[in-house]
Amino acid sequence: MSDRRDRIARAINSFVENPLTNLVKGIALLFIGLSDASHTFREDVSHGQVRVGHGMVILGAFGILGALPHLIEGLAASSRYLERRGKNDQAKQDGGDE
Q: Which pTM value belongs to this model?
């Protein structure tokens, strides 16, 4: 039974820590916050008020910024892998022609 719980816990943790999940979460928070804050932006600025929508915009922006380095590194790693794979395939073809 403990093994099943461990697998479920790892799956949940993997989902929550996934950069794509964090990116989608950040985008959703940003859009919801912008939608909420846009209705009262002028009044809030003129009266110096801070609302929940403003905080959601900040959380969303940081969520997106936190996910981007992981996504960029993943894209760079996949690019390096494809480049090496292409070189290995080319070497096999060149070596097999002799």
A: 0.70
The list of the chain residues with pLDDT below 50 reads 98
Q: With beta carbons less than 8 A apart as the criterion, state whether 38 and 54 touch.
A: no
Residue of 28, 25, 45, 27 lying closest to 37 (CA atoms):
45
Neighbour tally for 19: CB within 10 Å: 16
How many Å apart are CA 94 and CA 98, to the nearest integer?
Answer: 7
Q: Are 33 and 54 in contact (CB under 8 A)?
A: yes
In angstroms, the CA 95 to CA 89 distance is 10
* Both structure tokens of 76: 């760079």
Written in H, E and C, the secondary structure of 44-77 is HHHHCCCCHHHHHHHHHHHHHHHHHHHHHHHHHH
